From TrEMBL:
GO terms for cellular component: cytosol. PANTHER family: GAF/PUTATIVE CYTOSKELETAL PROTEIN, TIP41-LIKE PROTEIN. GO terms for biological process: TOR signaling. Belongs to the TIP41 family. InterPro entries: Phosphatase_reg/MetRdx, TIP41-like. This is Tap42 interacting protein. Pfam families: TIP41 (PF04176).
Length: 353
């Protein structure tokens, strides 16, 4: 299929001439894929983002980085940092966007209950760093001793923390987001995702995506936001796109590591085939003058999340190098271990056949 690559530079409004956004893109058939690269947020942009969200933004947001996929029918799909952050726990209600509830879906799968029941059973609360309880207890003890220097410290029993001591913030300080991107329907109403029902067609054909199958004619990797969690780990959201002559694949991945506490991964994959035979037939009465063929594109979206304790993932380190912790910072290695642990848990809950 014929394609054309392009690159443009845009000036960021209200900033210095040096502050620009680079747009790289490719047009292939009726599709246009645009990747926008900008600098890290400045002080004014951080203030604006914090005001919109109602929470402290991450340390390194990239508000101008974005990936947009457009079809000539009017359908678009968009990935950007601000939209993803609008799904973080604790964001003000008027700014919040709908996200994928991975925990409820998993609980429903392993417990055999409905999704609504699983979501209702979810307990509120946010993660704490590994030393939070010890720190809170020590603060509690110190406060009690300071309040009554003559009291017998041996009789003090640490209980609930006083109101002045908090072991977790009032928002999700890990910036965990299960936002799958933002689709916009075409004027005709097309572009609405529905649950897959055909195992043969409603899947991403990984056999077509091997490097030996087709050359990559366009590739980009965009970081949307990142935070080092006060030196307690790492939280990052990025999106990658690769375009081949006959199809394309997008992977947006959220990765979280809280040292000695937890690992999380949430992936959104978007697969689009440019082959007419992979599309859905357009009914005759719905065809328009802009339709190039008798089929409309079939877009497959796969959302998948996994979580496991830091200890469980660390236990899967290579036995010949148990003290080499470098794999724990390898996003792809950790994602593979989380997937294996999740499948193991599902098999365990399913019981013997």
């Amino acid at each position: 299929m014929l394609h054309r690559e392009y690159e443009r530079v845009h000036q960021v409004q209200g900033t210095s001439p040096a502050d620009v956004v680079t747009e790289r893109g490719i047009t292939i058939g009726p599709w246009t894929i645009c990747a926008f690269h900008g600098s890290i947020a400045n002080a004014a942009e951080l203030d604006r983002l914090g005001s919109v969200l109602g929470i402290t933004p991450p340390e390194m947001p990239f508000p101008h980085n974005a990936l947009t996929i457009k079809h000539e029918s009017g359908f678009t799909y968009h990935f950007d940092a601000e939209s993803a952050l609008r799904c973080v726990g604790g964001v003000r209600d008027e700014a919040k966007l709908a996200s994928v509830d991975c925990a409820a879906h998993f609980r429903a799968d392993v417990s055999g209950i409905s999704f609504d029941e699983a979501r209702a059973q979810r307990k509120p609360g946010f993660l704490k760093v590994a030393y939070a309880d010890n720190w809170g207890t020590s603060r509690n003890i110190q406060g009690a001793i300071a309040a009554d220097a003559d009291s017998d410290a041996s009789n003090f029993c640490p209980g609930a923390l006083p109101s002045t001591v908090s072991t977790s913030k009032e928002y999700d300080w890990t910036y965990s987001s299960t936002w799958p991107g933002l689709p916009t329907a075409a004027p005709s109403g097309r572009g609405v995702f529905v649950a897959g029902t055909d195992p043969a067609r409603d899947r991403i054909p990984t056999e077509r995506l091997a490097p030996s199958c087709a050359p990559i004619i366009f590739y980009d990797d965009l970081v949307l936001y990142e935070d080092e969690l006060g030196d307690n780990g790492s939280s990052m959201l990025n999106v990658k796109v690769r375009v081949m002559p006959h199809d394309m694949l997008v992977l947006q991945r959220f990765f979280l590591r809280v040292d000695d506490v937890v690992f999380r991964v949430f992936d959104t994959r978007l697969y689009i085939s440019f082959r007419a035979e992979d599309g859905d037939a357009i009914p005759t009465d719905e065809r328009t003058a802009t339709d190039r063929s008798a089929t409309r594109p079939r877009i497959i979206r796969e959302c998948r999340g996994a979580e496991a304790s830091y200890a469980d993932v660390r236990a899967r380190l290579p036995p010949h190098r148990p003290n080499d912790l470098s794999p724990l910072t390898d996003v792809n290695w950790v994602a593979a271990q989380l997937q294996a642990l999740q499948e193991q848990q599902l098999r365990k809950n399913a019981g013997p056949c």
